[in-house]
Design goal:
The complex is a heterodimer of chains A (about 525) and B (about 450). Chain A has eleven helices and 28 strands. By secondary structure, chain A is an alpha+beta fold. Chain A folds into two domains: about 260 residues, 2-Layer Sandwich (PmbA/TldD fold); about 250 residues, no CATH class. The longest helix of chain A is centred in the N-terminal third of the chain and has 19 residues. Chain B has two domains: about 210 residues, PmbA/TldD superfamily (PmbA/TldD fold, 2-Layer Sandwich), CATH 3.30.2290.10; about 230 residues, no CATH class. Chain B has ten helices and 21 strands. In chain B, the strands form four sheets. In chain B, strands 7, 12, 13, 14, 15, 16, 17, 18 and 21 form a nine-stranded mixed sheet that branches. In chain B, strands 3-2-1-4-5-6 form a six-stranded antiparallel sheet. In chain B, β13 and β14 form a beta hairpin. In chain B, α4 runs parallel beside α5. The longest helix of chain B has 17 residues. Chain B is globular. The chains are: A alpha+beta (about 525), B alpha+beta (about 450). Chains A and B meet through β1, β3, β4, α4 and β8 of A and β1, β2, β3, α2 and α4 of B.
C-alpha cells in the first residue's frame, strides 16, 4: 500500500538466526549455483516451460537494538533457498524451496510448471515477455568500502550506547537506537542465457529521542536524520565534506550519529516548548530528509504500471494516472521546474543493483519531464502495454521464496538548474514552514489526496526563520501540490532519503528504495493543526 | 509434513531439550501449511503454496540468552542447533531485564482448529475464486481479490517443565470490484477459522452492490458528521488503539494510556459507558490460542469495561518492577455490541455518512492517538433514515479515544478482519457523532 507501519520488514524478522561468523563465509560457490541453475532450467524445459528463471538467494540481516543504557537485541539472521518462475502454456507459475540440491531444484522447477499449467486453464491472454538478450556469466557488487558484517558487534553496541548516553546526559527521557545491516547474495539464471551473481549491501543506523514534560504530561519525539543507504559501514564514518550546514546539520553520503544525537537532543527540548501552528495556507520549504517520503507516495507509487492497470486494486489501490494521460504527452503533472527521474543505478541508493530480478540490466529514465508525464515503471511482461521493446529493469522479489514483480526503482526529483541555496528559497517567503525529517504519512488509493507530518518544523516570517512550531501536518492534492513548486535548490543540496519497507502485493512484500531531491519550495499549501485533547 | 500433532511435537521437543547444557533452555516447533490465489482484472495473477517447519532453541546462561533456528531434523542437526544457541548466549551482552522461564501450567484446549479448513486443496481455492469472478462478470464489474488459507501449529517446551501446544486454521478472503468507467468501487472482506462459513459469491455480491451504488458520487463539505462505521472500517480504526493496551509505555508517560502527572489510566473512565472491550480465546466466534509464549495460560481479560480502563498488559519484567501481577496481552480482541442491525442503525440516523471501509490509517500524534486516513470503496450520505446518494471519499483526522466517547449506538458484533494486518476481530458496526473529516479526495 505504501510504507509499512514498522521500520523493519516482517520478512527480515522471520529469517533464521545465525552466528556472526556464519555471515562472513561466502555461502555456496558460484560454480555450484550455476550447476544447480542448469538443472532447474533443464527440468522446467523438459516439463514444457517456454521460459524459466532461477533465483538462488542468501539473505543476511544483522540487527543491533538498544534503549538508554541497555542492549535489547543483537540478532544475525540468514535465509537461503531457491525461487523458480516459469512460463508454460502462456501462463506464469512459481515455486520455491529451501532444498537447494539437484533433486530439490528439479522438483521445485516441476512444481512451478504444474502451477503455470493449472493457471493457464483460466487464462484469457498469454504472457508477452519483452525480449532480453542473455548476458552470459556476469557479476555486480554494491561499491562498499567496509562490509558492515565484518565490523564487530561490540563496535556497533559501543557507538549506539555512547550516542544514547549523550542524549540522556542532555536531558531526554528516553532514547532508542539501532543499526540494521543487510546483505543480499543473489544468483540469477534464465533460459535467455544469463548467469548473474550479485552481492548487495545496505545499512540503516537510526534513533529516536523522547522528551516528557512531567507537569503537563505532554511528550514529543525527534528521529535521526540518517537515511537507510545502499552502502557499507563507511556511511558511519563522519566526514565534514558530506555535511550540509544550516539550522541543523544534515547528511549526504556520510553520517555523524554523535553530532545528530546532540542536535536531536536539543531539538526535542525546543519542540516540546514550541508554538502550536496556526492552521492556514503556508509556503512550505521541504528538506530532502522530509521530501523523499512525499515523492515516494505521490510520484513513485502512482507511476507504477501495475497500479495504473488495476493489478493492485484489491490492496495498494490504482492510480489517478492513466495510459490516456501518458499517451496525450501533455498531462501537466507539476510545474515546469519539476523533473522526476527513475534510476536503478544511483550510488548510495537502496534500489541500486546491476541487474533486476528478471535479468535485465538496470538503467535511468525520465518519468516527468519539465512538469509533463512522459513514462511509467514497467517490467518485461508489461513493456508491450506501453509500446516498449524492453523492460525498465525494475522487477524485484523480497526473498527467494517470493515471486518477483514490478517494484519502484529509486524515483527522484532532479536538482534545480539555477544556482539556488536554501537561504535563497527562504528569503522571499512571507509566511512559511520549513520542515526537516519525515513523520506521519497517508494518501488515498489513487494517490490524489495526501497528508504528511514531519520531525522539526520552523516558522518562516518575512524571509527569516523565527522559531520552532509543532502540531504541523499539511494536506494537498498531488497534481495541485507539484504544480505549486516555485523553486528547487541546486545540486549542492541534493540528498537521498528512503526506506526498507515500501509495501505492495498480496501476500505483502517489502522493497528497499531511495528518493533524492534538493530542498524545494511549494507555495500556498494547506497546513492543519493536529493537537487534540483526550 | 509441516503440521505435527501434540504427541509427535512433544516427543521431538523432549529429544532436543535433552541436548541442552545451559542454565535454562526453551525449544519451540512451529509449522505452517497453506496456499493463496491472487486475481485481478477478472483473472488469476499469481498463486502460491506455503509449507514450512521450524525449530527454535533459546538458551540462557544467567541473564545472557541466545537463539538459533533450524529447518533440518536429523539428530546431528538437532544437536547442532542447541550448540549454536548456547554459543550465541555465551557471546551475548547481559540483558538486565531478563526474566526466568516459567514452569508447567494448566491450560484448556483451543477451538481454533477446523479440519475442513485444514483440508483445503488448490482446487478449493480456485473454485472459490471462480465463484467470485462469475458474480463480478455477471454485474459487468472488474474484480481484484485474494484468498489465503493457513493451517498452523506451535509447540513450546522449556527446562522448567512448561509445555504448550496449539493448532489453528484460518482462511481470509477480500474482494474489490470496480465498474468499467472507474467511477464506482466496492469491497468486502471475510476471515474465519472455518472455511464452511466463507461464501465468496455472497461477499462479492456485497462488493458489487457497493461498486454499482457508489458510482457518480457527489462532493460534500468536509466537517464534523455523524458516521456509521461498518465493522471492517471500525476494526481498522480500533486496531491502532488495541496496540496501546500496554502498561509500560503508559507508565513511562508516552502513550494515550498515560495519566498526566505520572502513572497510567487504569480505573479512569476513558470512553463512553457503552464501550466494553475484552479478550477471550474461548469465544466461539473467535477462538484463539489459550497460552502464550511467555508461559501464561490465557483467559478472558476485560481491557475496558463500560468505558472504564480495567486492565493493561504487564510484561513479567514490568510487573515485577511495579510490584503487580504480570498480565499477558491476549491473542484476540472483542468489542461488545448491541442488538441493532446495520439497517436499523441507518434507519435511526437523521443525517450522517455510512462508511464501508477506511484506508491508509497512520498515527499523527501518539499523545492523543490522533489518526488520519480516508474512506474508500463505498461512502454514502444518509438522510431521514435512508441512504440518499453516494459521496466522494473524505480524509479524516480523528482519535479512536475521542470517537469512542462519541458513541451513539452499537450494532451486533461480527467477525471482521483488519485490512492492514489481516487479523480477525469481533467488532460491531457503530454510530459515532462528530467524526472529523478534514478534506475531500477524488479517489474512487
Amino acid at each position: 500500500m505504501g510504507m509499512g507501519a514498522f521500520m523493519i520488514p516482517r520478512s527480515m524478522l522471520h529469517a533464521t538466526p545465525i552466528e556472526v561468523e556464519a555471515a562472513l563465509n561466502g555461502g555456496m560457490d558460484v560454480a555450484i549455483k550455476k550447476q544447480l541453475a542448469d538443472v532447474a532450467l533443464a527440468a522446467a524445459k523438459a516439463k514444457g516451460a517456454t521460459y524459466t528463471d532461477v533465483r538462488i538467494g542468501r539473505y543476511l540481516n544483522q540487527f543491533v537494538v538498544t534503549r538508554e543504557t541497555r542492549v535489547q537485541n543483537v540478532a544475525n539472521t540468514e535465509s537461503f533457498g531457491v525461487g523458480i518462475r516459469v512460463i508454460a502454456n502462456g501462463s506464469w507459475g512459481f515455486a520455491s524451496s529451501n532444498n537447494v540440491t539437484k533433486e530439490g531444484v528439479a522438483r521445485t522447477a516441476e512444481r512451478a510448471v504444474a502451477v503455470a499449467k493449472a493457471n493457464a486453464k483460466i487464462l484469457d491472454n498469454p504472457v508477452q515477455l519483452a525480449p532480453q538478450k542473455g548476458y552470459g556469466e556476469v557479476s555486480w557488487k554494491t561499491p562498499i568500502e567496509k562490509n558492515a558484517f565484518e565490523v564487530p558487534v561490540k563496535e556497533k553496541v559501543d557507538l549506539l550506547l555512547a550516542a544514547n548516553a549523550l542524549a540522556m546526559k542532555g536531558g531526554v527521557n528516553f532514547v532508542n537506537s539501532a543499526i540494521l545491516a543487510v546483505n543480499e547474495q543473489k544468483y540469477f539464471a534464465s533460459s535467455d542465457g544469463s548467469y548473474i551473481d550479485q552481492d548487495i549491501h545496505r545499512l540503516f543506523p537510526s534513533f529516536t529521542v523522547t522528551k516528557i514534560d512531567q507537569a503537563s504530561g505532554k511528550f514529543e519525539s525527534i528521529k535521526a536524520l540518517s537515511s537507510p543507504v545502499g552502502m557499507g559501514y563507511e556511511y558511519l564514518t563522519p566526514n565534514s565534506a558530506e555535511k550540509v550546514g544550516g539550522i541543523v546539520t544534515r547528511y549526504k553520503n556520510r553520517y555523524d550519529m554523535m553530532e545528530d544525537m546532540a542536535n536531536a537532543t536539543e531539538g526535542v527540548k525546543q519542540k516540546i516548548k514550541a508554538k502550536s501552528v496556526e492552521p492556514g495556507k503556508y509556503d512550505l520549504i521541504l528538506d530532502p530528509s522530509h521530501l523523499w517520503l512525499t515523492i515516494h507516495e505521490s510520484v513513485a507509487h502512482p507511476t507504477e504500471l501495475d497500479r495504473v492497470l488495476g493489478y493492485e486494486a484489491n490492496y495498494a489501490g490504482t492510480s489517478f494516472l492513466t495510459l490516456e494521460k501518458l499517451n496525450s504527452k501533455k498531462f501537466n503533472f507539476g510545474s515546469k521546474l519539476v523533473n522526476i527521474v527513475a534510476d536503478k543505478k544511483q550510488y548510495g541508493s537502496l534500489g541500486a543493483v546491476g541487474y533486476d530480478d528478471e535479468g535485465v540490466g538496470t538503467k535511468q529514465w525520465d518519468i516527468i519531464k519539465d512538469g509533463v508525464l512522459v513514462n511509467f515503471q514497467a517490467i518485461r511482461d508489461q513493456a508491450h502495454m506501453l509500446g516498449m521493446k524492453e523492460s525498465h529493469g525494475c522487477c524485484y522479489a523480497q526473498s527467494w521464496n517470493d515471486v518477483q514483480f514490478q517494484r519502484m526503482p529509486n524515483v527522484s526529483l532532479a536538482a534545480g538548474k539555477e544556482k539556488l541555496s536554501v537561504d535563497d528559497l527562504i528569503k522571499n517567503v512571507e509566511k512559511g514552514v520549513y520542515i526537516i525529517g519525515d513523520g506521519s504519512f497517508s494518501i488515498d488509493q489513487q494517490r490524489y489526496n495526501f497528508q504528511f507530518g514531519g520531525q522539526s518544523f520552523y516558522e518562516v516570517k518575512n524571509g527569516k526563520i523565527v522559531g520552532m512550531l509543532k502540531d504541523v501536518s499539511y494536506q494537498s492534492n498531488t497534481q495541485e501540490f507539484w504544480n505549486s513548486v516555485s523553486a528547487i535548490a541546486d545540486k549542492d543540496d541534493y540528498r537521498l532519503g528512503g526506506a526498507f519497507n515500501d509495501g505492495k502485493g498480496q501476500p505483502g512484500q517489502s522493497n528497499a528504495v531511495s528518493h533524492g531531491s534538493s530542498t524545494t519550495r511549494f507555495n500556498g499549501v494547506n497546513v492543519i493543526n493536529t493537537a487534540r485533547k483526550i | 509434513m509441516a503440521i505435527f500433532n501434540k504427541e509427535d511435537a512433544q516427543a521431538l521437543l523432549k529429544k532436543v531439550l535433552a541436548y541442552s547444557t545451559a542454565d535454562e533452555c526453551e525449544v519451540s516447533l512451529s509449522g505452517v501449511e497453506g496456499g493463496n490465489i491472487r486475481y485481478a482484472r477478472n483473472a488469476v495473477s499469481t498463486a502460491g503454496d506455503t509449507n514450512t517447519l521450524t525449530l527454535t532453541v533459546r538458551s540462557v546462561y544467567g541473564k545472557k540468552s541466545g537463539t538459533a533456528t533450524i529447518n533440518e531434523f536429523d539428530d546431528a542437526s538437532l544437536k547442532k542447533v542447541v550448540q549454536r544457541a548456547e554459543e550465541l548466549a555465551k557471546l551475548s551482552p547481559e540483558n538486565p531485564e531478563y526474566m526466568p522461564m516459567r514452569g508447567p501450567i494448566d491450560y484448556k484446549e483451543s477451538k481454533s482448529y477446523i479440519p475442513a479448513t485444514a483440508a483445503i486443496q488448490p482446487d478449493t481455492r480456485a473454485e472459490a475464486v471462480a465463484k467470485s469472478i462469475k458474480v463480478s462478470k455477471d454485474n459487468k464489474l472488474e474484480s481484484a481479490g485474494y484468498i489465503e488459507n493457513r493451517t498452523s501449529f506451535v509447540a513450546v517446551m522449556n527446562s522448567k517443565g512448561f509445555f504448550g501446544y496449539n493448532k489453528g486454521t484460518d482462511v481470509i478472503f477480500s474482494i474489490t470490484t470496480r465498474n468499467q468507467e472507474g467511477t464506482g468501487s466496492g469491497y468486502a472482506a471475510r476471515g474465519f477459522n472455518d472455511v464452511n462459513k466463507l461464501d465468496t459469491a455472497a461477499a462479492t455480491r456485497i462488493a458489487a452492490q457497493k461498486a454499482n451504488g457508489s458510482a457518480n458520487a457527489k462532493a460534500i463539505e468536509p466537517g464534523k458528521y455523524t458516521v456509521i462505521l461498518e465493522p471492517v472500517a471500525a476494526t481498522y480504526m480500533l486496531e491502532n488503539m488495541f496496540r496501546g493496551f500496554d502498561a509500560r509505555t503508559a507508565d513511562e508517560g508516552r502513550s494515550f494510556m498515560s495519566k498526566p502527572g505520572g502513572g497510567n489510566r487504569i480505573g479512569e473512565q476513558l470512553v463512553d459507558e457503552k464501550v466494553t472491550i475484552y479478550s477471550d480465546p474461548f469465544h466461539p466466534e473467535l477462538p484463539d490460542a489459550t497460552w502464550n509464549s511467555e508461559g501464561f495460560a490465557l483467559d478472558r481479560v476485560n481491557w475496558i469495561e463500560k468505558g472504564v480502563v480495567k486492565n493493561l498488559s504487564y510484561s513479567q519484567f514490568w510487573a515485577q518492577k511495579k510490584n503487580v501481577a504480570a498480565g499477558p496481552f491476549a491473542s484476540n480482541i472483542i468489542m461488545e455490541g448491541g442488538t441493532a442491525s446495520l439497517e436499523e442503525l441507518i434507519k435511526s440516523t437523521e443525517r450522517g455518512i455510512l462508511v464501508s471501509k477506511l484506508w491508509y490509517i497512520r498515527l499523527v500524534d501518539a499523545q492523543s492517538l490522533l489518526l488520519t486516513g480516508l474512506t474508500r470503496d463505498g461512502t454514502f450520505y444518509i438522510e431521514n433514515g435512508q441512504i440518499k446518494y453516494p459521496i466522494k471519499n473524505l480524509r479524516f483526522n480523528e482519535s479512536p479515544v475521542i470517537m469512542l466517547n462519541n458513541v451513539e449506538a452499537l450494532g451486533k458484533a461480527e467477525r471482521s478482519i483488519s485490512i492492514e494486518s489481516n487479523r480477525s476481530y469481533l467488532i460491531p458496526p457503530m454510530k459515532i457523532r462528530d467524526f472529523t473529516f478534514t478534506s475531500l479526495s477524488d479517489a474512487v
